[in-house]
Write a structure and sequence with these properties.
The protein has 2 domains: 7-180, Rhomboid-like fold, CATH 1.20.1540; 195-236, no CATH class. The chain has 9 helices and no strands. It has helices spanning 7-31, 51-54, 62-82, 87-105, 115-132, 135-148, 164-180, 194-207, 219-236. The two termini are 47 Å apart.
């Protein structure tokens, strides 16, 4: 039996580690008789700025924590596994921008919990799949949408004691991050039908013929193929993602 750790297993372990962390914080808060709500985001108050960093780590109740646990584990595992080049920057932007949006525009109350992070991850997978439209991204989009499509509605006000602002700004941060990093991940090679593979093999055999070569082709065919080759080579050149983010 192989003991090699796969990228999917590492992604699940990473997401589970964060979930364990926030559970331990809630356990410590309960056992020590602490109240960690001041670590949440308090809008337009200098004392509430720390909540931009700490707000997603604390939860108001056990029910609140349990409601965030499974989305964090599932969506976190999917994002970390499916977007290896952009995952950490995307998560950092979602974390910081969602808290900043709440601090600037949220209601005058403490906002806490990791639901902004989970909404950001969902919208990152959703918008990223729609923008990239490759098989891998679409598959990840469909899995996330099948499990948590209700997040499309929870960005709007519903209950007075629920911070829809965290949901809304998390969704905005996830969507914006997906747009910025849409070209960071390598695109998989296009799939070919059997007849396309046979045609490609026949063309390769004809072009490799040491006597005939491509003399049987017209001038326009050769010009078109040369232009296609130049486009492929140009596409293979490394792209600076920072310059390509506009």
């Amino acid at each position: 039996m192989s003991t090699k750790t796969t990228p999917l297993k590492r992604s699940i372990v990473t997401a589970a580690s964060f979930v364990i962390l926030i559970w331990w914080l809630k356990v410590a808060e309960s056992l020590l008789g602490l109240s960690l709500y001041p670590l949440g985001v308090l809008p337009r108050n200098s004392d509430g700025l720390v909540g931009i960093l700490t707000g997603p780590l604390v939860h108001g109740s056990w029910q609140h924590l349990m409601g965030n646990t499974l989305p964090l584990l599932m969506l976190g595992s999917i994002l970390i596994y499916g977007y290896p080049r952009s995952r950490w920057l995307a998560l950092a932007l979602i974390w910081l921008l969602s808290g900043t949006g709440v601090w600037l525009f949220g209601r005058d109350s403490y906002h806490l919990g990791a639901s902004g992070l989970s909404h950001g991850m969902f919208f990152y997978l959703l918008v990223g799949g729609l923008l990239r439209r490759d098989r891998r991204s679409i598959a990840l989009l469909m899995v996330a949408f099948f499990m948590y499509s209700s997040m499309l509605m929870t960005i709007f006000p519903s209950e007075p004691d629920v911070s829809f602002e965290y949901h809304l700004f998390g969704a905005m941060a996830g969507s914006w991050s997906a747009y910025i990093f849409r070209k960071w991940e390598p695109m998989p090679p296009p799939s070919l039908y059997p007849w396309q593979r046979r045609l490609k093999e026949e063309q390769a055999w004809e072009e490799d013929d040491p006597i005939i070569g491509d003399q049987w082709k017209s001038e326009s065919q050769r010009a078109n193929e040369q232009a296609q080759t130049r486009r492929v080579r140009a596409a293979d050149q490394p792209v600076n993602p920072l310059q390509d983010a506009d």
